[in-house]
Specification:
The complex is a heterodimer. By secondary structure, chain A is mainly beta. Chain A has no helices and 10 strands. Chain B starts with a strand and ends with a strand. The chains are: A mainly beta, B mainly beta.
């Protein structure tokens, strides 16, 4: 099963771009990369996902390397409300189904 | 459209008591999951279901049972609660997994076993 590695914590100044890296070197060809965030023990919130191409939505951009072994979540203009734990997950296979497995994530602190 | 609703939101149990956590989704999702989250930890999968009438074990299934009698509901049971089961429990659902679909989470149930 593909595993992910993320830095334990990061910080960013308000208004600046926050770039959160994720390593998933054992990802297989049909596995997607998902990003979620969890604000203060609320339920995790979906941010973005991708397979091989870069993706952008109203919340963030996802940059996936050509070899798919790593990715970066970009919050283009971080605000104080973006302070949260960010999880990078790869959907893994279990008995024919793909089940999301969460690590400890990256704790992002956005400061004024 | 409520999404994923968990009840109750908070509960305190005595060791040895039993209880059932209810997860309900109104999005017609096929797949449902139960996770637990301990302080400073990520989410660990307890059990999951890929359809009505089917369930499967996750990473930490011991001490829990589940049932999926209706597509929209996924129940998590603790038959004899232990202090080690003090945690925040999250339910999630999805149309299916892996291929281009995301997961919707509930707001959590905070369970304390004394």
């Amino acid at each position: 099963d593909a595993k992910t590695t993320q830095p334990t914590s990061m910080d960013c100044a308000e208004g600046r771009a926050a770039n959160l890296p994720c390593n998933h070197s054992t990802i297989s060809g049909n596995e997607y990369v998902y990003w979620y965030r969890q604000i203060h023990s609320q339920g995790p919130q979906y941010i973005i996902h991708g397979l091989k191409n870069n993706e952008t939505n109203e919340m963030a951009s996802l940059i996936i390397t050509e070899d798919r072994k790593s990715s970066t979540l970009i919050l283009p203009h971080a605000t104080l409300r973006d302070t949260a734990v960010y999880y990078c997950i790869v959907s893994r296979a279990s008995g024919g189904s793909y089940i999301p497995t969460f690590g400890r994530g990256t704790s992002l602190i956005v400061h004024p | 459209n409520a999404g994923v609703t968990q009840t109750p939101k908070f509960r305190v149990l005595k060791t040895g008591q039993s209880m059932t956590l209810l997860c309900a989704q109104d999005m017609n999702h096929e797949y449902m999951y139960w996770y637990r989250q301990d302080p400073g930890m990520g989410l660990r999968l307890i059990h999951y279901s890929v359809g009505e009438g089917t369930t499967a074990k996750g990473e930490v299934p011991d001490g829990y049972n589940v049932s999926r009698l209706k597509k929209q509901n996924f129940l998590l049971g603790l038959e004899s609660a232990a202090p080690s089961q003090t945690s925040v429990y999250f339910c999630a659902s999805s149309y299916r997994t892996g291929a281009d679909y995301g997961y919707t989470f509930g707001s959590g149930t905070r369970l304390t076993v004394v």
